[in-house]
Fold:
Amino acid sequence: MDTITPGAFALLAAAALLVGFSKTSVSGANTISLAVFAAVLPAKESTGVLLPLLIVGDICAVLVYRRHAHWPTLWRLFPAVAAGVLAGTAFLAFADDGAVRTSIGAILLAMSAMTYWRRRRAARAPAGTDGEPGADAEPGTGRGGRLRARGYGVLGGFTTMVANAGGPVMSLYLLSAGFRKLGFLGTSAWFFLIVNTSKVPFSVGLGLIDGSSLLLDAVLVLFVVPGVLLGRALAHRINQTLFDQLVLAATVVGGVQLLLLS
Structure:
């Protein structure tokens, strides 16, 4: 990995702060981190540097929301996610850096569009109480629910392996399945801790995680933890609507930039 300039390191540090912030507050903020890492570092190597930082953030999120996970939903998703991770691993094994950068840019734009659609749909939905999935039906049950879980699972596994960008996919699925605030946060926290941890052997095998990337992670993790604390402190105080709009705009700009750099 080439020598990182002070300006580039400052961008990576800010992105690492957003990683922690996204895990305990606004999940969409993490998409900015993906674009920054892929723009500052070689696109393929950026996924290996970012992964350990995401796992640290996942551990913090599980410590906060661990009691609110809906495990039947997780068990339904994991087989399809595993298939998506394997497909993403095969793609990374053969794709060059330009193809990976293009893929990350395209995924970010697609995820931004999905997130925008998800938030508009959620804004039109009737308000509910915090907690587990809606009581009208077990999420993911029935033929349509199982097919939806498989489709989102494969897409989520592929996007998280190629670009660490499975968050918007899983957020869309959990909201469509009827999850409320605490059930959403708890299920998402456990999901990404398990999935991201399972990706480590594949990333090591592909050479994306090595001694130099871990050395950089050892420094950047110092910014993840403050981000976690900041997100938890500001979760109920920030203007959510405005911040989400800024996150989506920045993600679109980052995705376009990666496509132009390819």
User: Anything to note?
Assistant: The chain has a mean pLDDT of 83. DSSP finds ten helices and no strands in the chain.
